[in-house]
Amino acid sequence: MSVAAAGVTVVICCYSEDRWSNLVAALAALQDPQTAPGEIILVVDHNPALLARARNAFNAVHVLENGGKRGLSAARNTGVAAATRDIVAFVDDDAVVEPAWLPRLLRHYEDRSVIGVGGSATPEWAGGRPSWFPEEFDWVVGCSYRGMPRSAARVRNLLGCNMSFRRQAFEIAGGFDTGIGRVGDRPVGCEETEFCIRLRQVQPETHLIYEPTAVVRHHVPAARATWSYFLARCYSEGLSKALISRMVGRDSALESERRYVRKVLPSALARSVFDGIRHRKAALAARGLAVVTGLTMTTAGYAKGTAATWIRGR
Asked: What's the pTM?
């Protein structure tokens, strides 16, 4: 059975007029006549001015208001509820798809056991990539990171800025949990991780596929290329993982993270130190410091989140 682009709804969620130029670029990239999806839905998250502007500007797009509580999870659920195609894909409002993005995702749906397919995200740094920022931590800015599969593979969860599911996945597992996830600029997330885990717990015979050749270019503003954002995002990731551990179980919530800590980060630290010594550049050695502090902050966030959960549960 061939899965065509016409059978796909793409959902984009937005919340701020400050990202307007990014949003325009994201929507333009989806309207290539050769690979355009059958339906594009833009969900505006509790911003009346942005809603009016979008409805006036995007005639070929279904522009909706988030019908739930403020935040990305409810906005995505609004898009899912309005989708009319068999495959529902999600792209961030600051991500631009590459021309072959959709066909490369869809080819995996030929396998009926595949219930979701996601692609990779390449960071587009507004002010250039900081020399201290390790590729192993590109998840901090919502992108693919060193240590992820280099070819198509089964995975636990998909990247939020580049993912798709059969529509039946939401009928089976419900929607994204509105108790977690990003709200505005708050550097938290993991709602897609929780959804993917929950989906596979309900239907363990199905699979999620990561296809790294299905690429989006994800804009990274200068404000996210700072030490303060890096540390805050790592800490928030730990908090989110603690919450997810309570929701879906620690083993499922930390399955990928254990491998990341055991194999990916030690290699990153060794490479950073070696490159810094060999090239005699402090900036390269600073990547090692970022690896250590990033892991420390994430662990601290997880510990804080776990303790808070334990106290509430008493």
From this structure: 0.89
